Amino acid sequence: MKKDTIILGIETSCDETAASIVKNGTEIVSNVVASQIESHKRFGGVVPEIASRHHVEQITIVLEEALQEADMGWDQIDAITVTEGPGLVGALLVGVNAAKALAFAKQKPLVGVHHIAGHIYANRLEKEFTFPLLALIVSGGHTELVLMKEHGSYELIGETRDDAAGEAYDKVARMLDLPYPGGPHIDRLAAIGEETIAFPRAWLEDGSYDFSFSGLKSAVINKIHNAKQRGETLKPEDIAASFQASVVDVLTTKTLRAAKEFNVKQVIVAGGVAANKGLRAGLQAKFSETDIPLLIPPLKLCTDNAAMIAAAGTIAYEQGRRSGLDLNANPSLLLK
């Protein structure tokens, strides 16, 4: 019988300190996440220096908890995988240096993982991939369409040219005086509001799979400012519903068109904004009219976690990829 592959994953790219143990790239044995939302909430966004300090405080604790939850020792771990980028450089450095120290001390192979590859492979923790597949990645810093023809192969066919969808959500939320993180609050308001405002959709030139949400964000901000100047009252829930309708329309339409053009056998959704109920419903409605399977991970696997890093790292490890002890944080790491 083939021996199980047991991988430890470490994730510290932004404001979650996480460690996880995954078996064979598909089964979560343990998954520990220490969130910093409460610390950053009063600032209206993530403060890099504070995030880094919290990672230093939490990294040893979450690693120990991951091993205890899995009831495993270091002798059972085959390799250590860690997010090397992209992300906040100070935050990334905490995880990378912890992983290097452990790899050296425990004499384990070290594998650096791309954060977005992790988000993609979060889906494999729920269902096996069928190639070729199309991945829609939607998060605070990324909005991308990635074509995969096999494991570990990523072809970028569309990306944001300015604001990512999640970034636009957070900026609109601040204009509406909503707490951080703003995305879930916009989603909640949109569910009870009506699309009464015709906000723009940026389709870009014919055939492009790129995205642009800066114009939409500006249109929302201008609408709010103009209403205040005129003494008019706009319903926050209607602004949220109208804004979200524009975002969802563009994301779902382009994803469906790309899925058909590239004749994919599966479409997967990844990233923090994949937790958005409006987006999930919009995608399900679009793809219910096709025979292309749509896979959206459960909410716990949409936001940053280490199980997704271990899942992606398993493929890299099995393909023979290794990182040296000179591995460094790369905040601008490209997916390839």
UniProtKB/TrEMBL annotation:
GO terms for cellular component: cytoplasm. Its main location: cytoplasm. Binds 1 Fe(2+) ion per subunit. The keyword Cell inner membrane does not apply. InterPro entries: ATPase_NBD, Gcp-like_dom, KAE1/TsaD, TsaD. One of its GO terms (molecular function) is iron ion binding. It catalyses: L-threonylcarbamoyladenylate + adenosine(37) in tRNA = N(6)-L-threonylcarbamoyladenosine(37) in tRNA + AMP + H(+). SUPFAM superfamilies: Actin-like ATPase domain. Its cofactor is Fe(2+). Its EC number is 2.3.1.234. Fe cation binds at residues 115, 119, 304. Gene3D superfamilies: 3.30.420.40. Required for the formation of a threonylcarbamoyl group on adenosine at position 37 (t(6)A37) in tRNAs that read codons beginning with adenine. Is involved in the transfer of the threonylcarbamoyl moiety of threonylcarbamoyl-AMP (TC-AMP) to the N6 group of A37, together with TsaE and TsaB. TsaD likely plays a direct catalytic role in this reaction. PANTHER family: TRNA N6-ADENOSINE THREONYLCARBAMOYLTRANSFERASE, TRNA N6-ADENOSINE THREONYLCARBAMOYLTRANSFERASE, MITOCHONDRIAL. NCBIfam families: gcp_kae1, T6A_TsaD_YgjD. This is tRNA N6-adenosine threonylcarbamoyltransferase. The lineage of its organism: Bacteria, Bacillati, Bacillota, Bacilli, Bacillales.
